């Protein structure tokens, strides 16, 4: 699903099993105009496809899965590019 996020914070963390991954907090901007605070995560190829766009203060549109408060950004097959959107 295409998801619009305003990035509030982002950092690189390291997992023993999954290597480096992006972790942060964002505000999900819903189509109906409402918002929801979420945690964002991207691993492996998914992270590589969007890490240049995940910057504090930036609003981005990505393909992602919402999983109970965590937005998991999908890989390049589902989202060949993340698209930066002017805030």
Q: Indicate the CATH topology.
A: OB fold (Dihydrolipoamide Acetyltransferase, E2P)
> How does CATH name the architecture?
Beta Barrel
Largest sheet: 5 strands, mixed, barrel
- Radius of gyration equals 12 Å
Portion of residues within helices: under 10%
Give the helices and strands as they follow along the chain.
EEEHEEE
CATH superfamily descriptor: Nucleic acid-binding proteins
Structural class: mainly beta
* Percentage of residues in strands: over 45%
| Mean of pLDDT | 82
Query: How many beta-strand runs?
Result: 6
Number of domains: 1
In the CATH hierarchy, what is the class?
Mainly Beta
What distance separates the N and C termini? 20 Å
Q: Reading side by side through the largest sheet, how are the strands ordered?
A: 1-2-3-5-4
- Low-pLDDT stretches: 75-81
Write a structural description:
- With 87 residues, the chain is mostly beta strands.
- It contains 1 helix and 6 strands, in the order βββαβββ.
- The protein has a single domain (2-85), classed as Nucleic acid-binding proteins (OB fold (Dihydrolipoamide Acetyltransferase, E2P), Beta Barrel).
- Helices cover 8% and strands 57% of the residues.
- The protein has a 5-stranded mixed β-barrel with strand order 1-2-3-5-4.
- The longest helix has 7 residues, at 44-50.
- It is globular.
- Residues 75-81 have low confidence and may be disordered.
């Amino acid at each position: 699903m295409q998801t619009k996020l305003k990035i509030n914070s982002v950092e690189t963390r390291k997992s023993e099993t999954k290597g480096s991954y992006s972790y942060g907090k964002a505000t999900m901007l819903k189509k109906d105009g409402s918002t929801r605070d979420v945690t964002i995560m991207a691993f492996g190829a998914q992270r590589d496809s969007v890490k240049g766009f995940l910057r504090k203060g930036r609003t981005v549109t990505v393909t992602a899965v919402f999983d109970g408060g965590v937005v998991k950004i999908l890989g390049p097959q589902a989202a060949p590019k993340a698209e930066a959107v002017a805030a």
